[in-house]
Design brief:
4-stranded antiparallel beta sheet, disordered C terminus, single chain, about 60% helix, 4 strands, alpha+beta, 10 helices
Length: about 300
């Protein structure tokens, strides 16, 4: 039996694959070096499925933790699958270390660097200071996406990202989980992490303006310790927007975030879309939404 309350499926792209987060399971499907599609299915801890996950503001923080932890699990599985033929393996410790370094780099690049650049401009007005800092932050973010989107390996990940969005969009529209029907759907989605990050950067302008322009050490501290608060508020905006996506005002508000996805997604090929379908089907089967199918028939749904 499945719950009556509608559930919004979503996920992310990994190395040569797609991860889909269902009600009860995390399902990762990927294209192995030999051409076969491998599937990993993991039950979700109660923290990610309990009542706290439904409480406003709290759910944003839990979702942030969930995205980090589950993302690392999916990344670890996909990385080891990619190294399978070489007989090598990546340990979870190394992946966590890389993630910590990446998070530190992101905070330094998107929050601390804009702060120091704005201070260098010697702007006295608090509101103008934070507005200029926010615009610099947005500019750095967009420039960063443009640069990384030029990397061949990242292009493939972005194509799987597009495949994930097409599959989720198609499923939510009631389309058959087949390659041809899903091709017509958009590679952008309102609940995308790219849109979330853009909203976070906009909310950061408002929050840091309320903080004012105190001593430098307090400004640096605020750019770090307030990130969970800002992320939680950003989640609520995306949460609301996803449930009122047809509203013209909501569309206008979320339009910049949808535009950002033009950098983080690419049109997938049929094989990439097939992987996303397998991941989505695996999550739906685990939740009892659809009946399980034999592996040999999973190329077409």
């Amino acid at each position: 039996m499945t719950e009556n309350k509608p559930f919004h499926y979503g996920g992310q792209a990994v190395i040569e694959g797609v991860m889909i987060r269902g009600r009860k399971y995390l399902v990762t499907a990927l294209r192995k070096p030999g051409g076969d599609i491998g599937v990993d299915k993991q039950p979700l801890p109660s923290l990610y499925t309990g009542k706290l996950r439904q409480v406003p503001l709290t759910r944003g923080i839990i979702a942030l933790i969930e995205a980090l932890v589950l993302g690392i699990k999916a990344l670890l599985y996909s990385a080891n699958a990619a190294l399978e033929e070489e007989g090598e393996k990546v340990s979870g410790g190394w992946v966590w270390l890389m993630m910590i370094v990446s998070l530190a780099f992101a905070v330094a690049l998107f929050f601390l660097a804009p702060l120091f650049l704005t201070r260098w401009l010697n702007i006295g007005n608090t509101i103008l200071f934070n507005l200029i800092e926010g615009l610099i932050r947005l500019g750095v973010f967009v420039l960063y996406l443009q640069v990384v989107s030029l990397m061949p390996d990242i292009k493939r990940v972005f194509a799987y990202h597009g495949a994930e969005h097409k599959t989720v969009n198609g499923y939510e529209a009631g389309a058959l989980l087949e390659i041809e029907p899903l091709k017509k759907y958009s590679k952008a989605h309102v609940r995308c992490g790219g849109s979330f990050l853009f909203v976070v950067l906009i909310i950061a302008i408002i929050v840091f303006t309320l903080v004012g322009k105190p001593a430098l050490w307090l400004m640096i501290t605020s750019r770090i310790v307030l990130l969970p608060v800002i992320a939680s508020l950003g989640y609520e905006v995306i949460y609301f927007g996803a449930r009122h996506a047809s509203n013209i005002l909501v569309k206008i508000i979320l339009a910049p975030g949808m535009w950002v996805q033009s950098f983080t997604t690419r049109e997938p090929d049929d094989k990439q879309l097939e992987v996303a379908i397998v991941a989505m089907r695996g999550a739906l089967e685990a939740d009892g939404v659809i009946a399980a199918q034999p592996v040999e028939t999973q190329a077409t749904y």
